[in-house]
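Open question from group meeting: does this chain pack into something compact, or does most of it stay loose? Before anyone orders reagents, we agreed to write out a predicted structure and look at it together. Recording both the input and the output here so the notebook holds the full record.
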Amino acid sequence: MWIKCFIFCLIFNQVLGFDHPFIRQDSISNQKFKSEFKSIQLIKNEKKRLKLMGEFINNQVNTGDLFSNYSYQLFNEDNLASIWLDECGKNVDNLLKTGDISLAQQFVYRLYEEQIPFLEVERLFIQKIQQYPDDPNFIELLVSTYIFNGNWEKAWYQRRALDMRFKNEQGKRVLEFASYIFQSQQWSLASQIFDYLIKSYPNSNQRPRWQQMSIAAREQVVLRKEKPEIAEVRSLISAYQKLRNERGDNAISMSSYWQEAKLYAYQLKQLDSAVLVLNKGILLTQSDDNLQAQMKLELGDILTYKGKKYDALIQYAQVEKQVKDSPLAYEAKIKTAKLYFYTGDFELAKELADILKQGTQREIANDALELSLLIEDNTGIDSLEVGLKKFANIKFMYDQKRWEEGDSLLVLLTTENKQESLQDDILYLRATRARQKGDNALAKEIYWEIFKKFPEDIYGDDALFYYLTLADSANSEPFLLFIKQYPSSLHLSDVRAMLNNAKK
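Structure tokens returned:
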């Protein structure tokens, strides 16, 4: 709960512009702050100097100006960093007295934003824990400090220690922490934490959920490898099967059929096994329309890979009917359009794409628009359609996760293609693959090439946006260029946020 409260308060303050005194910035100039500070330090009479310094500090605490990197550096230069940190500790104490720990967590986040040395902040809270060993709030704040700085293992060590003191909570704090770690995509640690919960609270009614989350986290660790070991994949499949054997087919374990089928299809290339598993899962999920629809979509994809076009179309049509006018229904429609595209039925693919680009959710509308324009620019002449069919086949390979085959065909198409109309599409696909493979230097180079050559085409703003995500944020010029050139882009708010963060 503390994580949710903290994030809510932080967003609330940022969005509505409310400032608590301890997070105000620049209420007086840095120069004035420095002048007053240095003038006090020059006073020879120690008693008078200490008295004035105390008054100065109290005043800066009240305005919030004390708690900045600039003031920390001034205190540190004169070997007074310990005094500065003591004031931070006092401020934390006062905030905790309000009974709202999220206010203290906002202050900790402020110290992180101000780039106060991590070791100093860590030492501050360790001292507080030693001073008040029975107060769990200081451990919570130390955990927050570790999380903000990406020290996940240290955060887990403290969270586990706190859980051992509060066994009567049945792992409540650990579960919340585990969910946060999972959402933060720290997969290996997430699996470790869920395993801890399973072992520590074997009689909990949440144990099946923890088991499934642990397996899901392990799966992410395995699948993020360039070439997962077959033994690792089979171990995951066995884990899903064991989960169902232990717990039976219930609401929690149903989605494991879906996960298992994807492992068979995309990692082991055992499409028949994947179809069998999915058909069983679909049969057992009669009471859950959404989950059943998701499984049918997956089954349609796998049937597509098996070359069973019309069987796949039947699955997509069933989803459209089953969950009409829902995001899953629109996903079924775009999959249908892409299937027609992959198999060379460009006219049918474009008709569907033109319908979808009008009023569906953002991601699907964008996909539909790109597909429609791609077909429009590369059909009508037989020679153009030859290149488009090759490009469609490459996209099909990538959708099947047949990465090596797709990469080889993309290299071949890049060297032999003479169609100006396909150039931006090929370049964009090359950049996307480079980024997926971690070759950020190549991706950045290609994204910039797309922007320079095709600034007004559909990939113009996307290419510049992804270029910015890989670029040095210290150089604000390309960010300002994006804001000026693409004022209506869906990426605009993200670019502004990146620019603002770079200025801090």
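Observations to bring back to the group:
The longest helix spans residues 46-63.
The CA atoms of residues 74 and 80 lie 8 Å apart.
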